[in-house]
Every structure is written in structure tokens, then in C-alpha cells.
């Protein structure tokens, strides 16, 4: 019950306090690990709370990424530059693959995710070109 109450309260804190949220989650995780009465369900809830916070960060970062892509799209439009830049996309993929391997994350999964981000960025930039 303690963890569930903590989770509910943390989720009410705005994203701008993310470092504080992570601090609180870390404290609760330490508490749960040291508490001999912590049930597996409590431990799972603690880990799920961490995932929820990370998901919020990911969405916030993707929003920032899309905003940057749209700024680039506006610059391309103003200067009559093609939307797609294959050399840049290849560079991004190579960097992502390298970083995924260094981080012990499946590079194919990362590349699939970023393919979706790339396609959405291109679509939005193309729509911007038509305006």
C-alpha cells in the first residue's frame, strides 16, 4: 500500500520536476529493497513507477526532437533545401547503432523505433513545405 500511495503522488508531480521524481523513486526503491516485508507485488509496483517516469521523459524528449525537426523543416523551406538528406539519416543510424551497442540495447530495436521517428519527421517537414 505504501508504494502504491507513493506512486500515485509522484505521478501528480509535473514533468519539470523530473530529477526530484527520480530521487523519490530511488529512495522508495532503496526502502523496498531493504524492507524485509516488501512483497514481490510491492517491488514490481516500484519498478513500474520507475518505468512510468522514464516513459514521461521519453515522450518529453520526443516532443523536443520533433520541435527541432520542425525548425529544421522551416529552415529547409525558406532556403529551398530538400526535405530528405540521406547522408544525414545514414549518419544518425550509424550513431544510434553504436550507442545502442555501447548501452547493451538491441540495436535493431532502436533502429526500428527511430525509423518511425524519422518517417514522422519527414512527413511533417513535407507537409510544412506544402504550406
UniProtKB/TrEMBL annotation:
Gene3D superfamilies, per database record: Chorismate mutase (1.20.59.10)
Pfam families: CM_2 (PF01817)
Enzyme Commission number: 5.4.99.5
Keyword Isomerase annotated: yes
Sorted UniProt keywords: Isomerase
GO molecular function, one term: chorismate mutase activity
InterPro entries in the cross-refs: Chorismate_II_sf (IPR036263), Chorismate_mutase-related (IPR051331), CM_dom_sf (IPR036979), CM_II_prokaryot (IPR002701)
A GO biological process held by the record: salicylic acid biosynthetic process
Domain Chorismate mutase: 38-129
Signal sequence bounds: none
Protein name, entry field: chorismate mutase
Amino acid at each position: 500500500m505504501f508504494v502504491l500511495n507513493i506512486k500515485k503522488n509522484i505521478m501528480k508531480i509535473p514533468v519539470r520536476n523530473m530529477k526530484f521524481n527520480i530521487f523519490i523513486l530511488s529512495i522508495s526503491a532503496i526502502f523496498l529493497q531493504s524492507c524485509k516485508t516488501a512483497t514481490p507485488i510491492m517491488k514490481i509496483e516500484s519498478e513500474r513507477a520507475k518505468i512510468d517516469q522514464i516513459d514521461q521523459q521519453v515522450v518529453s524528449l520526443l516532443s523536443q526532437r520533433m520541435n527541432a525537426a520542425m525548425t529544421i523543416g522551416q529552415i529547409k523551406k525558406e532556403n529551398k533545401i530538400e526535405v530528405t538528406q540521406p547522408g544525414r539519416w545514414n549518419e544518425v543510424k550509424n550513431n544510434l547503432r553504436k550507442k545502442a551497442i555501447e548501452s547493451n540495447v538491441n540495436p535493431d530495436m532502436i533502429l526500428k523505433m527511430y525509423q518511425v521517428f524519422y518517417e514522422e519527421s519527414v512527413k511533417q517537414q513535407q507537409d510544412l513545405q506544402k504550406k
